[in-house]
């Protein structure tokens, strides 16, 4: 990992004063192969858990941070790729897996220890007839208007959380955001 090789003093300082004991967690994570499970397998693991969750896991519902962190612990505190999410949870342009009644798309999230989701991605639909059908549904949602909105999915702060072992994402934000700091 480039950060560890190029900035070892900075990482060591953080592990010594801000997040003691996290260096071993990071080394454990990097020494092991990442696991791959389907969204369906993830939900089954969560349903069988003895832990009580604030949000009850069920197929078709989005995974919450509490679910993501549990899955990582359940899998041995190593990074876990969760693949094949329900179509209804992902944007209209994700590639359809054509897998019958479950109707999943070729999407992936990487879950890491101490953070949960580090990043997400997926294949884009290239088949015209699928896009045409989904785009019609999307346009129907906007028939009566919408509000200006946007998003940010880089995951840089979560990446820093992961390698530095910092629990609170607010402690790794290089450009803190606060009310009225981003005028649209």
From TrEMBL:
Protein origin, superkingdom: Eukaryota
Gene3D superfamilies: Bira Bifunctional Protein, Domain 2
GO molecular function: aminoacyl-tRNA ligase activity; ATP binding
Aminoacyl-tRNA synthetase class II (D/K/N) domain ranges (all copies): 18-177
One of the Pfam families matching this protein, by short name: tRNA-synt_2
Keywords from the named record: Aminoacyl-tRNA synthetase, ATP-binding, Ligase, Nucleotide-binding, Protein biosynthesis
Example GO biological process: tRNA aminoacylation for protein translation
UniProt entry tagged with the keyword Nucleotide-binding: yes
Aminoacyl-tRNA synthetase found in the keyword field: yes
Family matches, as PANTHER family: ASPARAGINE--TRNA LIGASE, MITOCHONDRIAL-RELATED, ASPARTYL/LYSYL-TRNA SYNTHETASE
The protein, known as: Asparaginyl-tRNA synthetase 2, mitochondrial
Organism: Homo sapiens
Highest classification ranks of the organism: Eukaryota, Metazoa, Chordata, Craniata, Vertebrata
């Amino acid at each position: 990992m480039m950060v560890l090789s190029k900035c070892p003093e900075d990482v060591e300082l953080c592990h010594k004063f801000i997040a003691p004991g996290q260096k071993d967690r990071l080394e454990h994570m990097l020494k092991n192969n990442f696991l791959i499970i389907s969204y369906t397998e993830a939900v089954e693991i969560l349903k069988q858990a003895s832990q009580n969750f604030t949000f009850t896991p069920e197929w078709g519902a989005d995974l919450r941070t509490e679910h993501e962190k549990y899955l990582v612990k359940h899998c041995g505190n190593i990074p876990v790729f969760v693949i094949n999410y329900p179509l209804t949870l992902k944007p209209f342009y994700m590639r359809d897996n054509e897998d019958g009644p479950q109707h999943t798309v070729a999407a992936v999230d990487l879950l890491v220890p101490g953070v949960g989701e580090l990043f997400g991605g997926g294949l884009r639909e290239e088949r015209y007839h699928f896009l045409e059908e989904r785009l019609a549904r999307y346009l129907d949602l906007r028939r009566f208007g919408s509000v200006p909105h946007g998003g940010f999915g880089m995951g840089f702060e979560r990446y820093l959380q992961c390698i530095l072992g910092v629990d609170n994402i607010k402690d790794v934000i290089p450009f803190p955001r606060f009310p009225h700091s981003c005028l649209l």
